[in-house]
Each structure stands twice: as structure tokens, then as C-alpha cells.
């Protein structure tokens, strides 16, 4: 089972001036409350529930990811006592500009297989970030693909798209992520590539 984030809530609060506020002080605060579901000894779910500006969409996406992966687990393994499903999350970045979460669904049945999704909120603007938002008028695919191809030699990587996983690290750099088996053998695990913006 994956390691869970301990505690009943993670509180994120910021006060700053920015372009969206025309130099006026703006405060965007976020809280994350873990909601736990237990469906037998072999199923554990810890769902992050976010509160704050523009979080309804993120919560909806997380619930949909959980529903999709749990449904696949039930279809493949039913009530087998030899298989387990674990759903949890980690706060990757929590600084003055970004809040980034990693949400992971892991199925264990002899071997284990994980799928992860990443969600980033820009606290300056109080909204979820898409990769293309980070490059303004530049073609984000051209910029990101060029950087990744230098690092991902020997993989089957061709191009990022609007659904490619990413997060912002503590240095406010873009980190592009590929699930196990997505562009390389499962044995290489999850692959991550850092891109300077």
C-alpha cells in the first residue's frame, strides 16, 4: 500500500500582489481534507477534497480518476483476497506560487501497477494550471518536446499533449511525468523530466 499523507487537513494560505490584482493584495487560501473509504481489507482509499478558488473542477477530476481505476480493479479481480487496490495522494509542492498534488491508484496482485494523475493550482491567479498556460504565446508542445527528447533517449516518447501529466516543483520548474509502461518498459517505473520555462 502506498504511504499516505498523515493529518486531518493541509492548509494553504497566501497573500501577495500580482497582475490579476493590478498590484492590489489578493489572498487565495486552500485546504485539503483527506476523506477515507474502506471497502474491505484489500481496498483502501484516501481521497483529497480541496476547498478554495476553482477547486470544484479538480475535485471532480480526482473523483472521476478514482471511479475509473476502481471500476477496472473490480472488473479484473472482483472480490479476490489476493488482490488489493490503494488510492491515495501526496502534496508535491506547496510554495508561494503553486500547489501541486499527485494522486495515485495502485493495484497489487502478485506484482503491483500504479497510475498517477497530477493537479496544479496557481495561487497567484487562484485557478488550475494547464501546461499550455505556462508558455503564454509560445507553442508549448514545441518547447516541451525539444527539452524532453534530449533527456528521453531510448524511450518511445514522441510528443506531449493537453492530457500529459505534469506538476510544478518547489523551484517553480515544470516536471513532465509518464506512467509506468507509457513510454518505456514497466521495469523503468514512472519517468519524470524537468523543463525550464
Automatic annotation (TrEMBL):
Q: Which domain of life is it from?
A: Bacteria
Residue span(s) of domain DUF3298: 132-195
The signal peptide here is 1-24
The record's keywords, sorted A to Z, are:
Signal
Protein's recorded name:
DUF3298 domain-containing protein
Statement: the UniProt record of this protein carries the keyword Calcium = no
Amino acid at each position: 500500500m502506498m504511504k499516505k499523507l498523515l493529518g486531518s487537513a493541509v492548509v494553504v494560505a497566501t497573500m501577495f500582489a500580482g497582475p490579476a490584482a493590478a498590484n492590489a493584495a489578493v489572498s487565495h487560501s486552500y485546504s485539503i481534507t483527506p476523506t477515507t473509504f474502506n471497502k474491505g481489507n484489500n481496498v483502501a482509499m484516501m481521497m483529497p477534497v480541496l476547498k478554495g478558488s476553482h477547486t470544484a473542477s479538480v475535485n471532480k477530476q480526482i473523483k472521476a480518476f478514482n471511479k475509473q481505476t476502481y471500476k477496472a480493479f473490480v472488473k479484473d479481480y472482483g472480490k479476490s483476497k489476493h488482490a488489493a487496490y490503494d488510492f491515495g495522494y501526496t502534496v508535491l509542492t506547496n510554495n508561494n506560487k503553486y500547489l501541486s498534488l499527485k494522486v495515485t491508484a495502485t493495484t497489487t496482485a502478485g506484482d503491483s501497477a500504479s497510475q498517477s494523475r497530477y493537479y496544479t493550482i496557481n495561487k497567484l491567479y487562484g485557478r488550475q494550471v494547464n501546461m499550455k498556460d505556462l508558455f503564454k504565446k509560445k507553442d508549448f508542445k514545441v518547447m516541451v518536446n525539444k527539452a524532453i527528447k534530449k533527456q528521453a533517449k531510448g524511450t518511445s516518447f514522441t510528443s506531449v499533449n493537453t492530457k500529459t501529466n505534469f506538476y510544478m516543483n518547489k523551484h517553480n520548474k515544470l516536471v513532465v511525468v509518464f506512467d509506468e509502461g507509457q513510454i518505456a518498459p514497466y521495469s523503468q517505473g514512472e519517468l519524470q523530466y524537468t523543463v525550464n520555462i
